[in-house]
Batch of 4 targets.
Target 1
Amino acid sequence: MADTVEVLVEGGKATPGQPLGPALGPLGVNIPKIVAEINNKTKAFNGMKVPVKIIIDSKTKDFEIKVGTPPTASLITKELGVEKGSGSPKTVKVGNLSMEQVVRVAQMKGDSLMGKDLKYQALEVIGTCTSMGVTIEGQDSKTIRADILAGKFDQHFA
């Protein structure tokens, strides 16, 4: 029988204290080893809250760590260095992402996006940018979307 512990930790900064220690202690596992592996797997999300699932075999005490990804909007705000998106995205823009940044966010989200490949995953990220008041390459999302579908940015998706 496997025990599952789900927690939200700051990327790369998990500690044996709250919330991990109290959840893992009764299960008799090597907490420092689990914390080290979580920090290693979440270091790319430094400064963001990351969902983590720890699956523990109650007999052998072996464990598997599955790391979720922060919401797309959180990754975008981190790329921009802003606190939050625009309250009025049609009129107030909070920042501009390069196509490289869009691709980086799409790669971080990986399989949690529905797009069949990186190009379509990037389009999903751009959709989130639209609702946040973020431009891409200095242009609005509809223009960029048309350019991507026309193949103008294909070098970024190779």
Target 2
Amino acid sequence: MNRVIEGYTTTAAHRDHNYSRLLEEIAYLEARLITIGQTGDCAYEKSMARSYSQLLQLRRRELGAIN
């Protein structure tokens, strides 16, 4: 878990700032999902897990479009 958070806070070296920012956002969303679990324990966490999963898919698609 700490490695994921460190990956988010460490600046990724890439000439395109958008690419680096997407990597940071993906790492953050993955870390949040690990923290609350894929499904969560309560309605709030379940809702957040769904939102994070959707955002994660979107960010991965955006990253693929850059590559």
Target 3
Amino acid sequence: MKLIWIIARRELSVFFDSLIAYVMLILFLGFSGFFTWLYGSDIFLIGQASLRSFFSIAYWTLFFFIPALTMRLLAEEKRSGTIELLLTKAVTDRQVVLGKFLSAFLLIALALAFTLPYVITVSSIGNMDTGGVLCGYLGLLLMSGVYISIGLFASSLTRNQIVAFLTALFIGLFFHIIFNVLAGSITGMTGKIFNILSLSTHFESISRGVIDTKDLIYFLSIMVLGVFLSEVALSKRNIGNA
């Protein structure tokens, strides 16, 4: 665990030294703040003490931001050759992947923490559903973990950051939209399978304040699968070029 934390700290320092973290935080807070409070918000237009509009905006904003955040994690290391140097320092492929996953997850958690003034403001307006808000944040964190694992996997497949970004978006698009569309278009067992695979189904369930074991298993399973596939792809670095 100590080595994983060291790698995570190293990645976080890279994020902040290269201004990636600052740009990501400013853009995320700018988008979420504008659409939550100034455009289409149900807080002022309808007069409800709710953060549903924020969770809806963050759901889409993070979908695009996370691939941009993760595209360099392994692709840049492979392109520059530093991945070989890193893996000679008595760390395993799994520790490298978990460390990079943790760094991106902590940065997303920090971005969400900066939106806590939204919670304070809304709670001062009226009776806010505290449980629903907490579940909304939990849903965003779980969703972020899924897309970070997908982004890591995409970044482990190539040396090109743009290719990694587009690959992560393409894979994420199935979980974000396509599976849900197919679930609504197809009946029977196939439709139920697509509904289970749809991330929006599980996110909406949690964001409504319902924490179901099957939803937690869904998110954690995809995270574990993404990290595992990233480790497998990284372990094959010596077999041809990505």
Target 4
Amino acid sequence: MSHPDKEYLQKQLDDLKGLTVVDVYVDEDTTMGYTECWPVLVFDSAQKIKDQDSFIAYAISSDMEGNGPGYLMPLDVSD
């Protein structure tokens, strides 16, 4: 049996299939009295989502609750 979050996380990732990354940036958030740097990926969503704005963005978080910025860790997926 897989972890309960697996299906939820897979659905989020499946929503990104076919989209194009059109921008990347680091957002500085100082609302908590200190600076947190959040990696952000911006996708051109016009390819799949016709009833929304033409762009969507995902922040890389340390967890699903958004308790802090995360790290986009590259994986070796070579055959």
